[in-house]
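for the recovery benchmark. tokens below, seq after
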């Protein structure tokens, strides 16, 4: 899809450091063009400590409709949002920001929505499912929330840092009740197994679970993208599982981001 630039083109930059490996601005710009949006994303290398200055400049630039954030700005960016989604409020992080009608910023974290969409797009059924989420960091926490919002009957959270998993569950239980609880790394009995840990990014990483416990009735998803077929996905496919790898999440986030931006245009 060809991206055409003109004086009416809206801007939606990606802020991060380092930024040289980022491919999402190209993918998002082409996806925006495919959806008929006269908007582009472009990478901005913003070092830690310079975020306030850059955001002030973006706020003053009238054809900037928002921006996305990557490391190390997802937590720091929260402070510049006048309003945030419920997920961002609970987690204290933002990944996507758009303008409110009054010119202030509204923030949301897209990781959970994109991951769940990738699972569903590749054949998973979340409604009524028993879900195991491995990892309770930023991505894992967002995924747990999105799984609950998508109608999962049960979400078990496992993290090698048990206190972190317990903190997440304690935060969610007042609303979700017994549907969310701390679990183990054993996938036995679950319908959907989701890896939200970085295991698989480096060669030689151990698997986040025992692959012998995977069965063909399970759907296995992985957040690790850009590293080819991870050992977890390879083991899941060998067991007959349907899968969605991290690259599927990258594809799904394009629609999630476009939907997020266009919501402000209504």
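predicted aa per position
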């Amino acid at each position: 899809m060809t991206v055409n630039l003109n004086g009416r083109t809206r801007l939606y930059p990606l802020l991060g450091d380092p930024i040289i490996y980022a491919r999402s601005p190209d993918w998002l710009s082409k996806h925006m063009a495919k959806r008929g949006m006269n908007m582009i994303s472009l990478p901005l290398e913003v070092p830690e400590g310079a975020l306030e200055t850059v955001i002030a400049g973006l706020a003053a630039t009238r054809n900037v409709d928002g921006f996305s954030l990557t490391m190390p700005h997802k937590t720091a960016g929260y402070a510049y949002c006048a309003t945030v989604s419920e997920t961002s409020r609970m987690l204290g992080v933002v990944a996507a920001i758009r303008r409110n009608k009054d010119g202030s910023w509204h923030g949301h974290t897209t990781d959970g929505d994109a991951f769940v969409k990738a699972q569903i797009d590749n054949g998973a059924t979340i409604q009524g499912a028993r879900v195991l989420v491995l990892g309770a960091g930023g991505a894992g926490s967002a995924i747990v929330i999105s799984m609950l919002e998508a109608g999962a009957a049960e979400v078990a959270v496992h993290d090698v840092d048990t206190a972190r998993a317990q903190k997440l569950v304690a935060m969610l239980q007042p609303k979700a009740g017994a549907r969310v609880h701390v679990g183990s790394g054993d996938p036995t009995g679950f319908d959907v197994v989701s890896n939200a840990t970085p295991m698989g990014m480096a060669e030689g990483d151990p698997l986040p679970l025992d692959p012998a416990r995977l069965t063909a009735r399970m759907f296995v998803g992985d957040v690790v993208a850009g590293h080819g077929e991870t050992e977890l996905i390879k083991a899941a496919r060998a067991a007959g599982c349907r899968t969605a790898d991290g690259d599927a999440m990258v594809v799904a986030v394009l629609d999630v981001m476009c939907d997020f931006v266009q919501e402000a245009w209504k």
